[in-house]
Design goal:
Its EC number is 6.3.4.15. The chain has a 7-stranded mixed beta sheet with strand order 1-2-3-7-6-5-4, with helices on both faces. Strands 11-10-9-8-12 form a 5-stranded antiparallel beta sheet, with no helix packed on it. It is 23% helix and 33% strand. The protein is built from 5 helices and 12 strands. It folds into 2 domains: 196 residues, Bira Bifunctional Protein, Domain 2 (BirA Bifunctional Protein, domain 2, 2-Layer Sandwich), CATH 3.30.930; 48 residues, SH3 type barrels (Roll), CATH 2.30.30. It is globular and about 55 Å long. The structure holds adenosine-5'-triphosphate (ATP) and biotin (BTN).
């Protein structure tokens, strides 16, 4: 079933729904046009020719039954301080929405990768542009709802899709858009602590041996989950250190 712009429009609290057959990147579209678009605008595409992941990686985005979805949200300079942990909130909203549709085995790899049966099924990319009185945030979500094969030169790790569930993509897009808008709005008021416990329920590595890989080194420890700010807690012997979302990858050790 093709993406249906007017159906998605009806689910929105604010802003417009824009659907493309093909685009370079739905994130790029919102970032380029952020000044003229209404707050809350969502952009979806059937296919991305230059879908991107974190740290300049490519997000494989063929024409399939997948979801390539981005949303634009404005924050004042004051509210923009705690935005990195918002990506954990987005991962939680996705995980809870899928669980509510009876998808078992959904987990989150800190900070925000969505796993199904232990393999990467979705990812989130936060990007932003300065705006006159604050920041225009673009949140991009890629979910493999239905994709039978990948280009292995692009997808270099174990991956999964949800084709067995035969999702109605429009219905899921509507649900996500509505829940995201609701939560993006209240986030500056409630903060990350409002979501921390719920996020922990999906943590793929809690109490497991992990390594944090940065450009220059590897830090080994036991993951104790996250704190009230969404930072990763790593136990090394008697000490527990917290790590913010940055240029690092979390892996099983
Ligand atoms: P981390 O951010 O912790 O390093 P990661 O290894 O998953 O995690 P990301 O930058 O978050 O890295 O995601 C990009 C990676 O995801 C790519 O390097 C690729 O291997 C993989 N990937 C790309 N497209 C897809 C897709 N459609 N489904 C699953 N995985 C994908
Ligand atoms: C990751 O690296 O795990 C994040 C992947 C994010 C992919 C989505 S698909 C919709 C939006 N547009 C993009 O170019 N990237 C994000």
């Amino acid at each position: 079933m093709k993406l249906n712009q007017s159906q998605i429009q009806q689910a929105l609290i604010c802003g417009k729904a824009i659907v493309f057959d093909e685009i370079d990147s739905t994130n790029e579209y919102l970032l380029t046009h952020h000044q003229e678009l209404e707050n809350g605008t969502v952009c979806l595409a059937e296919k991305q020719t230059a879908g991107r992941g974190r740290r300049g990686r490519t997000w494989y985005s063929p024409k399939s039954e997948n979801l390539y979805f981005s949303i634009l949200w404005h924050y004042s300079a004051e509210d923009a301080a705690n935005l990195p942990s918002l990506s954990l909130v987005v991962s939680l909203i996705i995980a809870e929405s899928l669980q509510a549709q009876n998808v078992a085995d959904i987990q989150i790899k800190w900070p925000n990768d969505i796993y199904y049966q232990g393999k990467k099924m979705g990812g989130i990319l936060l990007e932003s542009k300065a705006s006159r009185n604050g920041l225009d945030l673009v949140i991009g979500i890629g979910l493999n709802l239905g994709m039978t094969k990948v280009d292995e030169s692009v997808v270099t790790q174990a991956w999964a899709d949800l084709s067995q569930y035969h999702f109605d993509r429009n219905q899921l897009a509507c649900q996500l858009a509505f829940k995201l808008q609701k939560n993006l709005k209240i986030y500056p008021l409630v903060g990350f602590s409002h979501y921390a416990e719920r996020w922990q329920a999906f943590d793929i590595f809690r109490h497991k041996a992990v390594k944090l890989v940065t450009e220059s080194n590897e830090i080994h420890g036991i993951s104790l989950g996250i704190n009230e700010q969404g930072e990763l807690l790593l136990q090394q012997g008697e000490t527990v250190q917290s790590f913010g979302i940055g240029e690092m990858s979390l892996r099983a050790d």
